[in-house]
Design a protein that fits this description.
The complex is a heterodimer of chains A (about 425) and B (about 475). Chain A is of the alpha/beta class and about 425 residues long. Chain A has three domains: about 190 residues, 3-Layer(bba) Sandwich (FAD/NAD(P)-binding domain), CATH 3.50.50.60; about 130 residues, FAD/NAD(P)-binding domain (3-Layer(bba) Sandwich), CATH 3.50.50.60; about 90 residues, Immunoglobulin-like. Chain A contains seven helices and 28 strands. In chain A, strands 1, 2, 5, 6, 7, 8 and 20 form a seven-stranded mixed β-sheet that branches. Chain A has a five-stranded parallel β-sheet with strand order 10-18-12-13-14. A five-stranded mixed β-sheet of chain A has the order 23-21-28-25-26, with no helix packed on it. Chain A is globular, with a radius of gyration of 22 Å. With about 475 residues, chain B is of the alpha+beta class. Chain B has three domains: about 220 residues, FAD/NAD(P)-binding domain (3-Layer(bba) Sandwich), CATH 3.50.50; about 150 residues, D-Amino Acid Oxidase, Chain A, domain 2, CATH 3.30.9.10; about 80 residues. In chain B, the strands form five sheets. In chain B, strands 1, 2, 9, 10, 11, 12, 19 and 20 form an eight-stranded mixed β-sheet that branches. In chain B, strands 13, 15, 16, 17 and 18 form a five-stranded antiparallel β-sheet that branches. In chain B, α1 runs parallel beside α5 and α1 packs parallel to α8. The chains are: A alpha/beta (about 425), B alpha+beta (about 475). β11 of chain A pairs antiparallel with β23 of chain B.
């Protein structure tokens, strides 16, 4: 007889733990967290810098400090978890297959599931950096893991491709460890990192940022010896004759994070624009009782926002388990309009929705002097003025439920430049 | 003195070594790289061609058809992933349909069964094919193979049967001395009665150590995209455009692990060490491939790579004794369809070129099979659990993307064939082959290698000498 659990949570990082605590506090007691790593906390274990928790705890914590507070909440509630445990399959009828060295392969039937497995880093191969294939080209998060968990430096003369936050943080970290960081190239004409990281990690260390530049060649037969960067045009194509060379032994890549969604296929779920699942306002996917939150849904810039989202998923799973989250055929679909890359949720069921509905999206490029406009079936229902909106910061707007009125049609969010009169 | 020295442990050298290991002869394989199958045998289309298109009567045609037929049994013995998926050569214009008919005729001259398909038949088999497809030539005998594993398991089986392998040992000179050869490397001078030159791109240089030759090996680069495995399937067969004088063209195929390969380009270059990729070339590969399969999801791209074909100036495989010594055997210019032909090449080299110059008496202890590999994902949960009960390391997942356990990795490390680098282990186990490209598992793999070989993590190589991942301990 297969064991049954009310709620199985895939991933014991910040999203999984916050979801578990929230579900517990909303009345779900039969919970199991499955974590593939040797500790709870996920990626925060290697984020030893500070800057976490300003919203959640009103103070600035390191990654391990932040995660410890959630581990304590999990432990206080005696929520069971399994470490070093890998989930290899979830079936459409919510049978979760996990494995570890003590129990082997186990199948359990879950009444509800929260997917909170995080994201992975885009690799050199994914963008096909031209040139040789030496060692010394490594993702920033992996270099961070080698340094902060294993105690090894990956190189001494470093260049960084991509201005994502992990890259910026590693620029500072490696400088402090005695490496020479020669620069950061960003293919876009703007940075993709948080402003505070640009200041604290690059400017304070005199590390130049080359905007509208990319690595046009890597050279090295066995280990990286040299890279070339080139300027790109407005179509992001390399402009010939703009090469600058740097003799480096390490190229760190901070070129994007992607939801780690390999279990979606098996449940018959189609990846959304974010490459995570598509969810409604309760973080529920197209499959009844399967929820998703955190970086496996869409990549967040602040863990505090992950926690807020995960709490919604946890509370929603509790509602579902109490039969208080019925599916209705009528619902509103949400779509990104002009200037918007994606939006979460992609669906709102007004009959279930809370009074205030958070809408999360990222713009496609930095935009100034602009209105964020929400239109239901073409009719503007809400607009917010923004002096500046940038892709590296997720936008979160609260839409009051009473503005949405009838439970059907299409909600579009677009950026509209302010008309100068 | 050894009986036979094989220079080069690519797929051809490894299969020849394995064939020879069934006889009572001493065999030493010298390989300049730190792993077998590390150059051309590593970076190719991984296709077992049917043999319909080489010019009839050439060695390419003969060995391809013969080699293709040997694959199913060979892959069973060596426990190598092989998929007899068939190939489709696609016609996108009416004129190309006429060419397909000529190709079918050529196929039947080569003894290859083929079938002409209508546009509707092709669309039914390949939902993602270009809508303007006009027809295709189906070759049911074509397949896909894992070339890394084929080469490694062939060499492992040879080693299990008594062959010796020296990695990291490049041949600097070969010289005839009395009735034997002296083969010089940086480490030693070896004496051998017979030398078999399987040096791939460098077979011309090796051959010239003995005598002038009237052929050349020109490196011809091919660049590829690798896409992740995902559902639903992109293609169900190996898809080729019409072949041209430049080769078989840009193909779209699945691999034995469910990934997709798109490529290769065809560029004649000078430098035999140039494995770099180039943005413009790859953009052209993309352009050509999408003419055949318009909606290739390039967002699933996980890697690009370049391989070098050892293209012979003679346009055919060079498989013959040298002019001066029948004991010095050249096996050179093994470009496409070299992988498909390699089992037949190995058989003919041993039976027709080695046998006349050295006594080959069967070895009683010869076992043609490698010890069965453990592939956890292909086993039932009950079977996995029985195994994990005996050895808990099979319950520990190292590579999340490809679902590879620590036990499977330790099994590979414990075998006769050394597996010293992260890349060698990646080629054998697939750990690091998935969408995150080792982002999560590389540190674990690095530590496993350090522990198994009793070296510092700082010394673990990614690939070639000098390719250490870690620079120093942090403060």
């Amino acid at each position: 007889m297969m064991e049954t659990k009310d709620l199985v949570i895939i991933g014991g990082g910040s999203a999984g733990m916050a979801a578990a605590v929230s579900a517990y506090d909303h009345g779900v007691k039969d919970i199991l967290i499955l974590e593939r790593g040797p500790f709870l906390g996920g990626i925060l274990n290697q984020c030893i810098h500070n800057g976490f928790g300003l919203h959640e705890f009103n103070e600035e914590l390191t990654g391990p400090e932040f995660l410890t507070r959630f581990v304590n909440q999990v432990v206080e509630r005696k929520i069971p978890y399994k470490l070093n445990t890998f989930v290899s399959n979830i079936s459409k009828d919510k049978v979760v297959t996990y494995s570890n060295s003590e129990e082997g392969y186990v199948e359990i039937k879950a009444k509800a599931i929260i997917m909170a497995a995080g994201c992975y880093e885009r690799s050199a191969g994914a963008i096909g950096i031209p040139g040789d294939r030496p060692s010394g080209i490594i993702t920033a998060g992996q270099a961070q893991l080698y340094m902060n968990e294993y105690g090894y430096m990956v190189g001494k003369r470093v260049f960084i491709l991509g201005s994502g936050d992990i890259g910026l943080i590693m620029a500072r970290r490696m400088s402090l460890e005695g490496a020479k960081v020669l620069g950061v190239a960003e293919i876009m004409p703007y940075s993709n990192g948080l402003n505070r990281n640009l200041v604290q990690c690059l400017q304070d260390f005199d590390i130049p940022l080359y905007l509208s530049h990319t690595v046009s060649k890597v050279v090295g037969k066995s280990h990286l010896e040299r890279i070339e960067i080139s300027q790109v045009d407005d179509k992001l194509q390399v402009i010939p004759g703009t090469v600058t060379s740097f003799e480096v032994d390490t190229l760190l890549l901070s070129i994007g994070l992607i939801p780690y969604n390999s279990l979606l296929d098996k449940m018959g779920l189609v990846p959304s624009r974010t490459r995570g699942a598509s969810v409604n306002e309760h973080m529920e996917t197209a499959l009844d009782g399967v929820f998703s939150c955190g970086n496996v849904l869409h990549v967040h810039d602040l863990v505090d926002n992950v926690v807020v989202e995960a709490k919604v998923a946890g509370a929603s799973a509790a509602l579902y388990l109490q039969d208080k989250l019925p599916r209705h055929t009528e619902k509103i679909t949400c779509e990104p309009g002009d200037g918007v890359g994606y939006i979460v949720p992609e669906e709102i069921d007004l009959a279930n929705a809370e009074d205030q509905i958070p809408m999360k999206f990222r713009c496609r490029k930095p935009t100034h002097d602009v209105f964020i406009e929400y239109a239901l079936n073409g009719e503007v229902i809400k607009s917010f003025y923004k002096q500046t909106i940038i892709p590296s910061e997720m936008e979160i707007d609260i839409i009051p439920k009473n503005l949405l009125k009838n439970n059907q049609g299409k909600l579009t969010v677009s950026l509209k430049p302010r008309e100068v009169k | 003195m050894v009986d036979i020295i094989i220079i080069g442990a690519g797929v051809v050298g490894s299969l020849i070594a394995r064939n020879l290991s069934q006889y009572e002869v001493s065999v030493l394989v010298l390989e300049k790289e730190n792993d077998v199958g590390d150059v051309t045998s590593m970076a190719n289309s991984a296709i077992v061609h049917s043999g319909y298109d080489p010019v009839p009567g050439t060695k390419k045609a003969l060995y391809n058809v013969e080699g293709n037929a040997m694959y199913p049994a060979l892959c069973r013995e060596l426990d190598v992933p092989f998929g007899p998926v068939g190939s489709l050569t696609i016609a996108l214009t009416d004129a190309q349909v006429d060419v397909l008919k000529d190709l079918q005729k050529r196929g039947s001259e080569n003894g290859v069964e083929t079938k002409l398909l209508s546009a509707d038949e092709v669309k039914a088999m390949e939902p993602n094919i270009a809508p303007d497809v006009k027809g295709a030539l189906l070759c049911p005998s074509a397949g896909v193979v894992n070339p890394f594993v084929l080469t490694a398991h062939a060499m492992e089986n040879a080693l299990d049967n008594g062959v010796k392998l020296h990695l990291d040992e490049a041949v600097l000179n070969v010289k005839r001395v009395k009735d034997h050869f002296e083969v010089k490397t940086a480490q030693a001078i070896y004496e051998a009665k017979v030398v078999i030159n399987c040096a791939g791109l460098h077979s011309e240089e090796i051959a010239k150590m003995i005598e002038p030759v009237d052929w050349k090996i020109n490196p011809r680069k091919g660049e590829y995209y690798v896409l992740d495995h995902y559902a639903p399937g992109l293609v169900n067969h190996v898809l080729f455009p019409l072949p041209s004088e430049k080769g078989k063209g840009i193909l779209v195929t699945m691999t034995t692990s469910g990934n997709y390969l798109v490529g290769p380009s065809s560029e004649v270059i000078d430098d035999k060490e140039d494995f770099s990729t180039d943005a413009l070339t790859l953009a052209d590969v993309k352009r050509q491939a999408t003419m055949m399969v318009p909606n290739i999801p390039f967002r699933e791209q996980i890697r690009v790579f370049a391989g070098l074909r050892a293209t012979p100036s003679t346009h055919d495989f060079i498989i013959e004794a040298s002019k001066s010594y029948k004991e010095f055997i050249n096996v050179a210019g093994i470009e496409s369809p070299g992988l498909a032909s390699s089992p037949a090449i190995a058989m003919h080299v041993v039976d027709e070129l080695a046998a006349p110059v050295i006594a080959l008496s069967p070895k009683k202890s010869y076992n043609p099979r490698v010890k069965k590999y453990i592939n956890l994902q292909s086993m039932s949960l009950e079977e996995r659990n029985a195994l994990i009960k005996k050895d808990p390391s099979f319950g520990e997942t190292v590579c999340n993307c490809e679902k590879i356990s620590k036990g499977e990795i330790l099994d590979i490390l414990g075998r006769s064939l050394p597996c010293k680098t992260i890349k060698a282990l990646k080629k054998r186990s697939r750990a690091g082959f998935g969408k995150c490209q080792g982002g999560f598992c590389q540190p674990k793999v690095l530590l496993l290698l350090a522990e198994y070989y009793h070296i510092s993590p700082l010394e673990v190589l990614y690939d070639k000498d000098g390719s250490e991942i870690l620079a120093k301990e942090s403060k």
